[in-house]
């Protein structure tokens, strides 16, 4: 039973580290430009394993929205990708998203 508590504590500390890491939450790391597409590493685990990220074409983004510590990208087909970040990094990622998707609407809630 003690091992269960130890494993839970280690998972909590690992997740907390990933949430606060400046290297993993760097806007250039979270939103990676790949030709006409942008690779979005939307969760802390996707930032460790980029194969878990999602791709969106630069011309298919309809709206970029920032609400608290979440940056959301909406596509023309009504799909949404939520990027969960710390408050400190969300503004930087929002600014980078505005640069990568110049034709998309911008909004702050």
Provide an overview of this structure.
The chain is of the alpha+beta class and 109 residues long. Helices cover 39% and strands 31% of the residues. A 4-stranded mixed sheet has the order 6-5-4-7, covered by helices on one side. Strands 1-2-3 form a 3-stranded antiparallel sheet. It is elongated. The model has no long low-confidence stretch (mean pLDDT 88).
- What do the pLDDT scores average to? 88
Structural class: alpha+beta
**Strand order in the sheet with the most strands:** 6-5-4-7
Tell me the β content: 25-35%
Work out the helicity level: 25-40%
Number of helices: 4
**What gap, in angstroms, lies between the N and C termini?**
44 Å
Cα-atom radius of gyration: 15 Å
Global shape: elongated
The main pleated sheet reads as: 4 strands, mixed
β-strand number = 7
The residue ranges in which pLDDT falls below 50 over 5 or more consecutive positions are none
Order of helices and strands: HHEEHEEEEHE
Short description:
With 109 residues, the chain is α+β, with helices and mostly antiparallel strands. It has helices at 2-20, 27-30, 44-48, 87-100; strands at 31-34, 37-40, 54-57, 61-67, 70-75, 80-84, 105-108. It is built from 4 helices and 7 strands; from the N terminus they run H-H-E-E-H-E-E-E-E-H-E.
